[in-house]
Write a structure and sequence with these properties.
The complex is a heterodimer of chains A (218) and B (271). With 218 residues, chain A is mostly helical. Helix content of chain A is 80%, strand content 0%. Classes of the chains: A mainly alpha (218), B alpha/beta (271).
């Protein structure tokens, strides 16, 4: 181990780290939102909506993220889509996790006992009040663990974005490795950095889950 | 709760069912029900499983959409209106909810909201439906919880309560809607036997206060003691109806006779 290498490459690695955090946060937020839209689409009657939803899942869950990234970044220009690597990176992460989030939302909503909604209706509660006061609080508590899983997977998968030169931390580490002919120092940093990131995410999610499921433990 | 009566002191009709029919696809569950429920009276609906008694109750508050006939609550037809051509059309849910503002149901499975405390459950209809200010809603909810003997559990969550306690909270929550008519859908069927009594006691008190109650139940003792009218349902039709003394002591329908025999052989001589 040559720790002095970190003095030289530390700033670049840290910059990569912050960029990973940035890309993943954006991908996560967009993915959560787009996943909700997808879930709502899946609820719509009509074959066209259903086909779209199924096709979407088949595409984004059924193929590797690596292939999706390649196709959009290198294949895009052939159909007139010349997008920056950073844009493709965020977009691909979001499109990819949204497919999983949509299914997580579905399981969350479907797990609520129907009787709770009947009681709300019977007591005169409007649809929107029922959604906000009854469904969402319980559903959010239920979906935190699967969402956490999916987020951690996404963070690790974001390393794939290095293949299209998104300036995130894997790119920075690979550059360090090729410039210094070292292996242990850059990749040990990477392993630790991803682990720290996921550890922090898990901590936050566990805290949220504890808060949201307070009623189950009283 | 005071009982509203006409000048001549005969109670008015609270719920009227006219030739009510309900189908699930090809399966007709209610085959033309005619029934009159007077204000301030307790009507118990009994019958075997699959006889349609829960469906009947759920048609009254339109949790089940009936196809033919009418459900009238204080003279107003529930769930359907007329379009310009005079054809019957389904009303939007929000309108149906308004029509049912004086009706409330207590469910077999309580259906409390587990993420809200007992107090918040009871406050919910006050706060989120009627828009009562917080302090007032809280005070009213505590009054209602006291009424069902659950004020000491106001701050806990429903899942930590026994079934009987949950059902009493559910009754308090229904009362928060300030209904004139209460529907009970097998309110004690999900309870351990030793917890049935506490719920029946609360219901009996409500009946004494003059609440109009329609109760689907297997508790023949309760039906015999508390109800003004008993309706025996079999295969989607009213097989026999009348005062409890008549139905339980001198049933004329063979189906009711065998139903009561089965019941008493399973429950000893309790009834």
């Amino acid at each position: 181990m040559d720790f002095s290498l970190y003095l030289e490459f530390g700033p670049a690695l840290l910059k990569g780290f912050t960029y990973t955090v940035y890309v993943c946060s954006l991908g996560l937020l967009l993915g959560l939102a787009w996943g909700l839209v997808l879930y709502l689409i899946s609820l719509r009657p009509g074959a066209l909506w259903r086909w779209f939803y199924r096709g979407y899942l088949a595409t984004f869950r059924g193929t590797p993220l690596l292939v999706q990234v390649y196709l959009l970044f290198y294949g895009g220009p052939f159909i007139g889509l010349s997008l920056s690597a950073e844009f493709v990176g965020v977009l691909c992460l979001a499109l990819y996790v949204a497919a999983y989030f949509a299914e997580i939302y579905r399981s969350g909503f479907e797990s609520l006992a129907k009787g709770q909604l009947e009681a709300a209706q019977d007591l005169g509660m409007s649809r929107i009040t029922t959604l906000v006061k009854i469904q969402l609080p319980q559903m959010l508590a239920l979906i935190i663990p699967p969402c956490l899983n999916q987020t951690i997977i996404m963070v690790k998968e974001s390393a794939i974005l290095s293949v299209i030169t998104v300036p995130e931390m894997t790119t920075a580490a690979v550059r360090m490795a090729t410039q210094t002919f070292t292996v242990v120092e850059p990749y040990l940093f990477l392993a630790l950095a991803y682990w720290c990131l996921n550890f922090a995410i898990a901590k936050v999610a566990n805290y949220c889950e504890l808060r949201a499921t307070h009623y189950l433990r009283s | 709760m005071t009982q509203q009566t006409h000048a001549d002191n005969t109670p008015r009709t609270a719920v009227e069912l006219v030739k009510l029919r309900k189908r699930y696809d090809d399966n007709e569950v209610l085959k033309g029900i005619d029934l009159n429920i007077l204000e301030g009276q307790v009507t118990c609906i009994i019958g075997g499983s699959g006889s349609g008694k829960s469906t009947l109750l759920r048609c009254i508050n339109f949790l089940e959409v009936y196809q033919e006939g009418e459900v009238n609550v204080f003279g107003k037809t529930i769930g359907y209106g007329m379009d310009e051509q005079g054809n019957r059309e389904l009303l939007p849910k929000s309108l149906v909810q308004q029509e049912l503002s004086e009706v409330c149901m207590v469910f077999q499975q309580f259906n409390l909201w587990p993420h809200l405390s007992v107090l918040e459950n009871v406050m919910a209809p006050l706060r989120w439906v009627k828009g009562v200010p917080l302090a007032q809603a809280k005070q009213r909810a505590l009054e209602l919880l006291t009424k069902v003997g659950m004020e000491h559990k106001a701050e806990v969550y429903p899942l930590s309560l026994s079934g009987g306690q949950q059902q009493r909270v559910a009754i308090a929550r229904s009362l928060a809607k300030d209904p004139k008519i209460m529907l009970f859908d097998e309110p004690t069927s999900a309870l351990d036997p030793e917890l049935v009594g506490e719920v029946l006691k609360v219901m009996q008190e409500l009946a004494q206060e003059g609440m109009t109650m329609v109760v689907v139940t297997h508790e023949m003792g309760f039906a015999a003691q508390v109800s003004d009218q008993v309706v025996f349902l079999a295969e989607g039709k009213i097989e026999e109806q009348g005062p409890p003394s008549k139905l339980f002591n001198a049933p004329s329908s063979p189906k009711l006779q065998s139903f009561l025999e089965t019941w008493s052989s399973r429950n000893g001589a309790a009834a």
